[in-house]
Task: structure prediction
Amino acid sequence: MKQWRLILGIARNHLLTKMKSTVTASLGVTFGIGAYITLVSFMTGLNQLLDDLILNQTPHIHLYNEVQPSKEQPIDRYLGASGDLAQIRSVKPKPGQLKIHDALPILDHLKADPRVLGATPQLRAQLFYLSGPIDLGGVLLGVDILEEERLSSLGDYLVSGGARELAQSDNGVIMGIGLAEKMSLKKGDRVQVSTPGGEAFPLKIVGFYQSGIADIDNTQSFANLETVQRILGKPSNYITDINVKLHHIAQAAPMARELERQFGIRARDIVEANAQFETGTNIRNLITYAVSITLLVVAGFGIYNILNMLIYEKMNDIAILKATGFSGGDVQLIFMSQALLIGLIGGVLGLLLGFGLSQLIDSLPFETEALPTITTYPVNHNPGYYAIGISFALVSTFFAGYLPASRARKIDPVQIIRGN
Amino acid sequence: MTTVLEARHIDKFFHKPVEFHVLKDISFTLPPGEFTSIMGKSGCGKSTLLYILSTMDTDYRGELYLKGEKVTGQSNSRLSRLRSQHIGFVFQFHYLLSDFSVLDNVMLPAQKLAMKSREEIEHDAMEKLRTLNIEQLALKKASQISGGEKQRVAIARALINSPSILMGDEPTGNLDSYNSENVFQIFKRLREEQGLSLLVVTHDEDFARRTDRILEMEDGRIIRGN
Result:
């Protein structure tokens, strides 16, 4: 029978009378776990930021018509299986429209799919921004701005002026910040755009867009889908791109292939679009885990040392306990519970320390041109890391305590008592 | 009446630093309520014998019976239990847990045995301390009391589980004559009032002469008193 109150009482007495060792050992755990929490929160926060910077600009699945040559040239059909060799020089892309055929039924179909969180239509128009004698080439994206804001992080990149203002305005535009600076435009100003056909159209600036990526900010603006359709003189079913957001990003690749087969259009999934980026993320995660594990292992060795010392100092006590009726197992439990108490106290303090430090980092100002919505250093307060932290504190103190404790179990009381 | 303790043909070897035959074919019995002392020169094996009899040392040949039950070959946890139930042990040095209070030291073996509630154990422990005239020390730390007092606390601890036999390894060896006499009187009273068997290893001839029976040892054998 195990008498937990008695065993914990003895363990507590040992810990309290060896306050210095207890505090040192607990601090070892505290700093290990605290550093782990801080580091992992901060690093994953940064990783998340970097990922978002690129990945948020990319929909899970992007449907569009790609300009490409026909896979099968007419001469191939003519020759058929005759075995003659055809050589065609200077193959040209197949002429076709950029518009997605039957875009509205496809949108309805996607929205009804249970895997899909949402699908938004876009109309991508190449046009010129007129500023005095200068024509600046650029892209105007016609979007359903409220849906975009709900499904993508577009809203995070809107400065001075929001999605709602655009939605309420018939001829409003949200300009890329770089483009606006080039033309010295302020909010509320009017800007003329002209189609490649030469028709000019006035738009009113309701806000600016700053993604942090100069290439985009210098060329791209947003307007309502209807506005762009009107500028181009196209009907309301004229849509060039459909962006799909899924519930689970892992389904992007298989679903993209499925959509390509079903609708005969190009479907590019997020993994394909950001292959090199995934590699970077994986490597950064690897570094985070390597450093965290090192920290935790170092803390574990500290505990091992101190428990060893504690048992050496308590050799007489162990012999006395054994001589007065405590079994080896009881003695082992006493020292194991000391180890786990150190782990628990140190671990909980470590979590608090880690939480405090990551809060501190979270409140440090971090302002950068590239990221308009970020004002402080990014920190990922994921409760999962706290769970890992406290579990590791307990597991490592368990192992660190196990060896010294089983040594205490094997101590022969007669040798200690007679040795004196 | 059954014997309290019986040893049959006990042999014990030390293997380090060289092979050494410490105890040679020791057999004897202890009847209940007898005050026995073991005497002999240093190194004759009397302490070694005592630790075997106390069941703490299990590395021997032969058989040992405690109140008619064979203890040789029992598991360690079973031995721990038997030991705390039936045997009280007093060492030459007091061997108290110095970081615990006197009361805690006395209570620990009973708490481990867990045959009584905490309140009963505390009551018993105070009772034992009172019998030994040290109840006023109950709440002091074991490291803060004098040598004679420590030995009395150790005796109280040995008595807490109401053992059948009390063993002592030179319990007066470290005490002045006043405290030695005190301990002897306590032992004697325990035997008379509670019928406790006592087995004490000692160097002190005066002490031994006043016991009921002296086992004299030489070179690993009992040469007189058996």
